[in-house]
Design goal:
By secondary structure, the chain is of the alpha/beta class. The chain is built from 13 helices and 6 strands.
């Protein structure tokens, strides 16, 4: 049985993804993929982790857990989305790197699913945006301030975190996408989580884009979607980009300013390094990076 776990990270709208997965649970179910209740699987997994202290779960016990989480014998896959797997927000800034402890958490969870064909996904975000969001949020702001004042801009990277994850669980395929790209590839993300073919219709393909638009833009997008069905992923991205260009309410992506310890040049360097990380990861063995299809065709007058 396949088991797909999405593990966050913070400020990448994991709750919106969890809701989208729930909305599509009937779509998944028709493909023999089950979306277990979060309270049910969280309690069961946490109980195993506490009892075995992260050690590899015997195959029979792991199979029994999978059986409990699946709805019937025909189930071939599970989809579980839970930001809590990435740990408390304070842990994002330990050991002079981003999410130092995430690798051990992935290892422990992979040991619980020893009988499954386990896949893990995570959404990452521009580190400058992450730090700015933490400071705006207030919670763990002291940890974020310490990080910005003590970590040189060239050292701010997702690569050490992902290196550790692959070292801790080398047999687990890892899928990554960026929060900045998520609205454009929302349908692909939902398909990927459930291992759905391209001909399986999913619900809410434009939800993530609509969330970023003004009221007028959201209403126009809804009207457009009722009249036209994009024929391909590229066409869907053209629609999304056109509405974002015209109706995006606020700039919700990219680096923020005013972070103590980092100059504007530092922020630019961090953003450039972030782009380099994505490019490098897209070529790495064991990692799948979901990215938009690059298109430039105009949408036309119907928007």
């Amino acid at each position: 049985m396949k088991a797909h776990l999405h593990i966050g990270v913070h400020f990448t709208k994991t709750q919106r993804l969890a809701q989208a997965v729930r909305i599509n649970q009937r779509v998944y179910k028709r493909q023999n993929v089950v979306v277990p209740d979060v309270n049910e699987y969280r309690a069961q997994i946490d109980a195993v982790l506490r009892r075995l202290d992260g050690q590899v779960v015997p195959l029979e016990e792991s199979r029994a857990l999978l059986t409990r989480l699946a709805s019937d014998e025909s189930t071939t896959g599970l989809v579980m989305v839970d930001e809590k797997w990435c740990g408390p927000l304070e842990s994002a800034f330990e050991e002079h790197m981003l999410y130092a402890g995430l690798a051990d958490q992935v290892r422990r969870i992979s040991n619980v699913f020893s009988a499954a064909d386990l896949r893990v996904s995570m959404s990452i975000i521009n580190p400058a945006t992450l730090i700015g969001s933490v400071l705006d949020n207030g919670h763990a702001a002291g940890h974020a301030n310490w990080f910005a004042n003590n970590i040189p801009a060239p050292d701010v990277s997702w690569m050490p975190c992902i290196d550790r994850i692959q070292e801790a669980a080398p047999h687990v395929p890892l899928t990554i996408w960026t929060e900045e790209d998520a609205p454009l590839i929302w349908e692909r993300i939902l398909r990927h989580l459930g291992d759905l073919n391209d001909d399986v219709a999913v619900r809410g393909s434009l939800t993530a884009v609509r969330d970023m638009l003004s009221k007028e833009g959201g209403e126009r997008l809804t009207a457009y979607a009722k009249k036209f069905t994009p024929a391909s992923q590229a066409a869907l991205e053209r629609v999304s980009l056109a509405f974002l260009d015209k109706y995006e309410e606020v700039d919700t992506v990219g680096p923020v300013g005013g972070i103590p310890g980092w100059t504007h040049d530092d922020l630019a360097e961090i953003t450039a390094g972030y782009d380099d990380d994505i490019a490098a990861l897209s070529k790495r063995s064991g990692v799948t990076v979901l990215q938009p299809v690059h298109v430039a065709d105009p949408l036309g007058p119907d928007q």
